Every structure is written in structure tokens, then in C-alpha cells.
Amino acid sequence: MSAGIATAGDAVVATDIDGDIAIVRLNRPAKRNALNDRAILALEAAFRSLPPAVKAAVIHGAGEHFSAGLDLGEFVEADLDAAIDNSRMWHRAFEAIEFGRVPAVAALHGAVVGGGLELACAAHVRVAESSAFYALPEGQRGIFVGGGGSVRLPRLIGVARTMEMMLTGRVYRAEEGHGFGFSLYLVPVGEGLAKAKELARKIAGNAGRTNFALIHALPRIAEGDRAAGYLMEALISAIAQDDAQAKSRLRAFLEKRADKVAPQS
Ligand code: 1HE
């Protein structure tokens, strides 16, 4: 099943449903998937309206690049209030991904820059093709990140690296980004989407409560104080195990019907 989120034919964001996963595609390859207001609102709508059967999502970009970031062509001199509103709109959209109903896997290739990099940060797992490159040209453009990048990126790669990317316009290659943990999988050109789908399918097969705990509780526990973290962990782990799915999965292992833990080949 395929569902365009904007008007059919020129959907800036298009969503395909494939069983229990959704594949959300940035769909303006002629503009290198630059993100205008319409695209940001369409992304938010896509993630807020995923059908109940969908248990995980993939985000990727059509064409040669994941995303060139903010659409500079449609960026007009906004007054202060409008600029704050615009940034808050990006925040809402990317929060719909990071703290949405299902885990999201980003498949990255080509340019992953500016707001495109900020979008990639909102996913829970990042798969990079060897063509991917990362930059924050905001410093050179005389602006600042506005899509949550200053909150999310330092948590992934550190404050110093994030700062230097904006100070000097440094561009990191896929291998470098992989080296410092921005991507968790590095795959050859053309294989990112397939890998992301494979991971999304695996994630979709988890117990729903476990996925809920992972995307909603774990980041908050990790960022909060220890005492509150232990309390929340105790509550969440009890809630997760008090579920028929948990009990049947544990029984399956004991009855030798479940996979053993083994390194991936
Ligand atoms: C765009 C954009 C864009 C391309 N807004 N139109 N982002 C940037 O500063 C990145 C600017 N873009 C680039 O550096 C390059 O375009 C790329 C490295 C991404 C791709 O290069 P290439 O050679 O494949 O494509 P191109 O020939 O540069 O661009 C093709 C078309 O896309 C062209 O339009 P055309 O009508 O002349 O064909 C470009 O103008 C257009 N295009 N990127 C608008 N970004 C929440 S705050 C976030 C702040 C930011 O994200 S700042 C970073 C902005």
C-alpha cells in the first residue's frame, strides 16, 4: 500500500506502508530534499498518522542525497517572532519522530547537512551509506541550527565536535561519522535503504511495550538524575514484563524455541 502525505504526484514527503513498517521518503530530489515548511509539516503529519499496524519506520531521501537541510530558496527574512515559531514547528515535527509511537531508522546517503542532519538526529538508529557526508553550514550561512540540532547532536557526537562543525564548516565523511558513532551501520552505496528496512522489521517484531520503553523511557532515564532513573527503570521493567508477550517470549527461550544471542555475520 502506498500513501502520499501531500497532494498525490507532488508529495514532498511520501509514505509507503509495507506490512508492519512504514517507509517515509523525503521526495524533492530536484532540490536535494531541501526542507521547506511544507516538508516539515508533511513529515510531522506522516509520523503522527501512522496506521496502528505500523510498528517501526524508515526515513530516507529520494535521489542522490538524504537532505540539503533548510530550503534556502524559501527562507525569507522572518521577523523575530516568526523565526521562533518556525523553529518551534521544526521541533514539533522532529519530536513526533523521536518521541513518536514507533522507533525510526534513518537511511543516510549523500548530503546529510544542516536541517537534514538535524532530522537524522531525531531517528533512533542511523544507517549510513559510504556516500554520506555530514556538515552544519549554518555557521557559514550566518544562522544557527533551529531543528533541535543543538540539543540532539551534542548528545550523539559531543559539544566540541558539534561546535567545530559550525565554526569551520567542517564536512565529515561517512567513515568518520561512523567512527565517532553518528551512524551505527556503515554499508556500501545503494544498500542503506535495504539495511534500514531489515532493521525496522526486526524492531517491529519486538514486544510493543519494550519499544515504548526504549524510545520514551531510556533517553529520559539516561538524561535524568540517577535516583529518578532507578525508580523509572524499576517501574518500566515491571510494566514491560507484566505482559503476555514478555511471558511467551521468555517461555519460548526456555523451551528452546527462540534464537540464541550471537554476533551478526
Ligand atoms: C537547494 C538547497 C537548499 C540544494 N535550499 N535549494 N543547506 C546548505 O547550505 C546546503 C546547500 N546545498 C549544497 O551544498 C548542495 O546543493 C548539495 C551538496 C546538497 C548538493 O549538491 P549538488 O551538486 O548535488 O546539487 P546542486 O546543483 O547544488 O543543487 C541542485 C538544486 O537543488 C539547485 O536548484 P536548481 O533550481 O538550480 O536546480 C539548488 O539550488 C537546490 N538546492 N540545496 C534550497 N538547502 C532548522 S534550521 C536548519 C538550517 C540549515 O539547514 S542551514 C543549511 C542549508
SSE map:
Layout: E1 2-4, E2 13-18, E3 21-26, H1 37-48, E4 56-61, H2 80-98, E5 104-108, E6 111-113, H3 115-122, E7 125-129, E8 133-135, H4 138-141, H5 149-157, H6 159-168, E9 172-173, H7 174-179, E10 185-187, H8 192-204, H9 208-223, H10 226-241, H11 244-254
Parallel strand pairs: 3-4, 4-5, 5-7, 6-8, 7-10
Antiparallel strand pairs: 1-2, 2-3, 8-9
Helix pairs in contact: 1-2, 3-5, 5-6, 9-10
The structure holds 3-methylmercaptopropionate-CoA (MMPA-CoA).
3-methylmercaptopropionate-CoA (MMPA-CoA) binds next to strand 6 and helix 4.
Would you kindly provide a written description of the structure presented here, covering whatever features stand out?
The protein is α/β, with parallel strands linked by helices and 265 residues long. Helix content is 47%, strand content 16%. It is built from 11 helices and 10 strands. The strands form 2 sheets. It has a 7-stranded mixed β-sheet with strand order 1-2-3-4-5-7-10, with helices on both faces. A 3-stranded mixed β-sheet has the order 6-8-9. A hairpin with a 2-residue loop joins β2 (13-18) and β3. α3 packs across α5, α5 crosses α6 (159-168) and α9 runs antiparallel to α10 (226-241). The longest helix has 19 residues, at 80-98. The radius of gyration is 19 Å and the shape is globular. Mean pLDDT is 94; it is low at 1-8. The structure holds 3-methylmercaptopropionate-CoA (MMPA-CoA). Residues 31-32, 34, 64-65, 68-73, 90, 111, 113-115, 137-138, 141, 143, 145-147 line the site of 3-methylmercaptopropionate-CoA (MMPA-CoA) (1HE).
